[in-house]
Amino acid sequence: MRNFELKNVDNDDLEDFLIKVEKSFQLNFGNEDFKDVQNFGELMDIVINKIQLENHEDCTKQQAFYKLRKSFAAVLSIDLRSISTTTLLSDLFPIKNRRYIIKNIEKDLGFKVSILKAPDWYSGSFIIILILSIVYIYWSWKIGLLGFLLSIIGLKLGEIFGKELHLKTVADIVKYVSRENYVNSRRNSTTFNRNETEALLTEWFREELCFEQE
After folding, report:
1. Which stretches of the chain are DSSP H helices?
2. How many Å apart are CA 199 and CA 60, to the nearest integer?
3. Domain range spanning residue 181?
4. 3-class SS at 167?
5. Where does the sequence pass through the membrane (predicted)?
6. Domain check: are 47 and 64 in the same one?
7. How far, in whole angstroms, is CA 6 from its chain's centroid?
8. Which residue(s) pair with 39 in the sheet?
9. Which of 10, 133, 163, 167 could form a disulfide with 148 if both were Cys (CB 3.0 to 4.6 A apart)?
10. C-alpha span between 6 and 2 (Å, rounded)
């Protein structure tokens, strides 16, 4: 995987990936940081060297689980021992007041978990409208542009008001949060696990950009 050449990756997709890495590890990449990078191994080395935290050989996922479980129990007023990695999020967060619960959990944690989405049929409908609008611009730019703007607004409203969970179990949210919010998931935010981070970045890159491990 380290030898995977970045010329095979779309630049926009790679930029989106690096933005997520910046957020997760609270980094700030410069415009010239990756200009001479040829493969994934070189990219990962730059990211790792940017992380100015003390190396501790402990498990971030375990710490994320304890942190999430404590927050869930506090907000929901339930026994934290009733929450395990196999617990369904749909059981913990009833759809009726799901957004309110998640908002309070995010307030308790101090960071967003972003696990809600619009229903697939809703998002799918506006994506179809978006595609058709782009095509229709060639025949009537006014109608095409109107459809384009309406679809963008519709998708954005879906993000704001959606109540569907895009994760299934507590184990899923532990993996998601420890990857998307690595530093915040740690018990001590001034530390990281170097070996764990290398494995995390490799898996994340492969999943995000749809490549099989070499």
Report:
1. 11-25, 40-50, 60-76, 89-92, 98-109, 120-136, 141-161, 170-180, 182-185, 194-208
2. 12
3. 60-112+169-185
4. coil
5. 121-139
6. no
7. 21
8. 5
9. 133
10. 10
* Contact (CB, 8 A) for 60 and 199: no
Q: What is the DSSP letter of 9?
A: S
Beta carbons of 205 and 47 less than 8 angstroms apart: no
SS3 39: strand
Residues 30 and 3 grouped into a single domain: yes
- Per-residue pLDDT tens for 34-91? 888 888 899 999 999 999 999 999 999 999 999 999 999 999 999 999 999 999 999 9
Indicate the pLDDT class of residue 179, thresholds 50, 70 and 90. Answer: very high
DSSP result, 53-113: SEE----HHHHHHHHHHHHHHHHHT--GGG--TT-BHHHHS-GGGHHHHHHHHHHHHTS--
The reported pLDDT for the residue numbered 36 is: 86
Phi then psi for 127, rounded to 5 degrees? -65, -40
Say whether both 83 and 134 belong to one domain: no
pTM of the model: 0.84
C-alpha 109/C-alpha 132 separation (Å) is: 41
Rounded Cα distance, 52 and 41, in Å: 19
